[in-house]
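Input chain follows. Return structure tokens only.
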Amino acid sequence: MGLPARAFYMVMRLAPSGIRMRMWRGLYQRMARSQTDPNFRFMNYGFTDDSELKLSEGDEPDRLFIQLYNMNIRDVEMEGKEVLEIGSGRGGGASWIARKYKPKSLLAVDYSAEAVALSQGWFTDQDNLEFKEGNAQDLPLPDESFDIAYNVESSHCYANIPDFLSEVFRVLRPGGKFCWTDMRDSRTMEKMHDQFLTTGFSIESRTDVTKNVVDALDLIDEGRREMIRQSSPASLRKSFETFGGVPGTPVYEALKSGKIQYFRYLLSKPR
């Protein structure tokens, strides 16, 4: 049997960062191999939003997941810009942003070779979109090559946050924007807030969006449970449910109680 949900949660929170990152990567790889349904293109927790985001009929089933991406990047102008996504998962967010906001190019990087392969197969018809395997802590990219970078619900998997932030800072051009959103406990978030500043970023805005994320998890509960039941081996279902923030699991309960909070930061690299 796989790790019980609570044990999985504790290992992911308390294990040394290198071990934790290898476990996250193994889970992502397993998920990409076992869940190849092209309709499953988003892994994030979702976001409820009062604004009227217009979506195509084809995108409407993924509204809550798309709204999380949109919340993260909506204060930056992307049209005609060179954009980088770090931690692109199954590619749904990058595909939507490339279609909706028309950047000159969008390079989406992920450390799961299987997830990258799926994305490359699904989104070949988008000329301004490319997927590439790469480590967020050692990006295979030249200095000052992007106008905008964004990172959605991925950095909690990384072993070394200072290295990650240094890499983002390095590949951004002066004046470039960095849009970041993810979950942290309060002590870790305070540390990361300082790390943003130490790296050299200016903080333009900071927002706690925990309630919007928890509300979205409540709305997607039934569908996510069914997807996991149908496509995951029985030995991993509880771990996948915890990973997916299903209500009743430790991650969901920590968000619901405020023990973990979900934040959004807009940062910039000084000119």
